[in-house]
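To: structure desk
From: M.T.
Subject: fold request, one chain
Message: Could you run this one when you get a chance? Sequence is below, nothing fancy, just the single chain.
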Amino acid sequence: MPVYEYEHLSRPCDLGPVFEQRQSMADPSLERCPNCGGPIRKRVSRININTPKTNSELKDLGFTKLVRRDDGVYENVTARSGDSRYMVRGRPETLPNVKKTISD
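Reply: Done. C-alpha cells follow.
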C-alpha cells in the first residue's frame, strides 16, 4: 500500500505538522486528522525510485547489459562466470546463459 503525506491546516497535534498515512489508492483522501480530528490536506511529495547506476548493480539484479563494439559484436559488460565476454552475430555459443539468472 502506498504511503501518503498529509499536513495540518491548523495547529498540529502529536503527529506533527506533517505526517504519513498508509492507505489504499482506492481510498478517498483524508479530510480530518485520525489523531486529533483537525482539518488536513494531502501533500504532493516526491517518490523514491531506485534505479541501478553501475554495471555491477545491474548484474546483481539479474540484468544483462550489452554494449555494441563493432558490426555484429557486443560486449557483455555484466558477464557472469561461464559466459562469453563478447557476443558475436552468427555464433549462438556466445549468447549469455539466461538460465543462470531467470528462475520461476
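Reply (cont.): The first helix runs from residue 55 to 60. Let me know if you need anything else for the meeting.
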